[in-house]
Structure formats: structure tokens, C-alpha cells
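User: Teach me something about this protein's shape.
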Amino acid sequence: MIQDRRPSASPETDTRGASANPLPYAIELWNRQRTAPERIIARAANAALARAIFQAAKVEHPDRRILLRRGCQVVIETD
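Assistant: First, the predicted structure itself:
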């Protein structure tokens, strides 16, 4: 039997060796002063799920700033 000595690919890296985030969308709840994120409410694997979580967060926190991000890009935010 011939043993393969190549390093196995990590589940957190793609074929190019770059970091692959399985949950690229983040829904952030900001502090009441709207100056910084207070916490991440949830992470999601796809845009449809992320938007549904964002809508639910808006209902639960109507007076707070909420951002939906994909990496550093803001996809949508409350007014």
C-alpha cells in the first residue's frame, strides 16, 4: 500500500488555501448611541436566511440600529 504524504486540506480553507467562512453574513445589534456594535445577533450561510434574521431583529429591536454585513460590506441597515 502506498501512503499519500501530502497534507490534507483543512475544512476551513478552500482549494487556493484562502480562509473560507461557512457563515459569511452577520447581523449586528448596535449600542443605543449608535456608535459601535454591541453584539452579533446571528450569522448566516446565505443571503435569504440573513435577510429573514435581519427582519426579525428589526421587529424585536425597533429602536436600535441593526446592520446586515457580508464581510466588511454593509448589505442593509436600519435607519
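Now, about its shape. The chain is about 20% helix and 30% strand. The first strand starts at residue 25 and ends at 30. If you'd like, I can walk through any region in more detail.
User: That's plenty for now, thanks!
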